[in-house]
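I am writing to request your help with a piece of structural work I have in hand. What I wish to show you is a protein chain and, alongside it, a tokenised description of its three-dimensional fold. Could you please explain, in whatever detail you think fit, how the structure tokens follow from the sequence? You will find the record immediately after this paragraph.
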Amino acid sequence: METVVYEASVPYDPDLPVTRRDRKRQEMYNRIYRSAIELLSLREFDSVTVEEITEAADVGKGTFFRHFASKEAVIAAYFEETRDLLVHALEDPEPELQDRISPEAYGHGIHPGPIWKRFVGTTYLAASRDGRSHRLIRTLLALSAANDTVRAASLSAKAQLVQTITAYMKEGQRTGEFRADFAPEALASFTRNLYYGTQLAWAQTDDDSRFENHIASSIALAWFAVRKSGEEVS
């Protein structure tokens, strides 16, 4: 049973508030969002009430509904936040995350080039975020299949993420890093689906294994699927 409280991150906002009123609105949004995600990381979705979220955030119900139409809207916001965070990470990667997988993990094949390393860094950022709570990921997966609001947000976020990945796949094909016998959209969808498939398998377990450990082997296998055969990429 998980006992670690999910430390929800502040939603990434590319347009930082510029007025005092905007800042207060963003701060209130963040407080409600963090409280809701923390509770939903520890308990089943249906057992968490709006009243409990507002109590944890120390706000009234009216304030909650000014920011979120429902509990489902909080989950939808999680997908939107994830999309913004990962797109930003792809465009402005963190060097320390790009080398999380040792060269040995790729066996004796071709080691990855700069664009795939960018994907590695972004994938580890996503895994470190998603890997904080089995329960929350189960909730996300279940609502993505059963709730129209959440499903629409999930599909939209994933489609936009694939669009960004596709642009990098296309560039990697141009530079010879990735195979060119598949459309870049197909390679982008493959890498996305591999991540979410690994996420599903991890979420269904009850052990204490880290999601990052599960995703490491998937990343290495994905590289062999998308790389261009030939000499090592520099």
Q: What stands out?
A: Residues 112 and 223 are 7 Å apart (CA to CA). Residues 1-12 have pLDDT under 50 and may be disordered. DSSP finds ten helices and no strands in the chain. Residues 148-175 form the longest helix (28 residues).
